[in-house]
Amino acid sequence: MPLDVSKVRYISLIRMEGGESVLNIPYAELTVDPDLIAGFVTAVIIFAKTPIRTIRKASYDILIQVGETVLVLLVVDPVPDEAPYRAKLQHILNEVESLHGEKLRHFEGDVRRFREFALTVIKEFPFQSADLNMIPVFTNSGVRIPFRVGNVDHELEQVESFINGKRTVAEIMDLMGHSDEEVQALISILTRYDWIEFKHRLTDSDVLQINDCPEIILDQLRAQYGEALEDVMTKFDGTANINDIVEGLTANINDIVEKPHYDKDALWFLIKKLVEVGCLKSVRAS
Fold first, then answer.
1. What contacts 210, CB < 8 A, 6 or more positions away?
2. pTM for the model
3. What is the mean pLDDT of residues 200-212?
4. What are the structural domain ranges in the chain?
């Protein structure tokens, strides 16, 4: 059975010797303080020396993978098969002990050095699975990413440089010299912290309607496109698809001599522009 990342609520890395939590990544709201969960698991595993791998609660399960220097704790909605989740936990465990084993053995209390490892965790458990055919676009509502330091910051800057409001997730993957899993992880981070949202690429079958947009934008567009703007805007009433409207406006001039006719590529450019600035919005695909 495949892994469902939507069921993941919280991941924590806890040092075995002292019980300190060195990295915490919240995925969803919990009714219980995750620090209490981590403390409870630490007490059971470290102090009681009980070989427990799963703790089941009424509304969630706690999956535990124990290594020599650290344990990885996953809080997840009840799942029918732990195997795919546990395999990823083991990979995280192997990676953190390989990269940071000595730091964990000689821990000096500074957990900041472990923040970059968040990207390794999120590669295994992305915050969400992005639709490869969707186009990421920047928002104005991004919030601070707590582990955006060092290499994580560098990688996020790279993926951000490929986001231009026109490329799909799949196209960004093709352009970047990273694994698909890493690009998915980076995009999921930007989505989780509200730096990007998604739109779909317009197709012939999309149905659009006029949307409220500032008059100043309409004035700028009128100055640029003149009569073509009005001809296009009046056609989008939420019933006809783009193909029908474009075909009507590009009909052979000998057919309807009293109406202006436009180049198809120019019309598509204008329609995309109107969607981009918010003057047209999608209703449905027919």
1. 233, 236, 237, 279, 280
2. 0.78
3. 87
4. 5-110, 134-200, 206-285
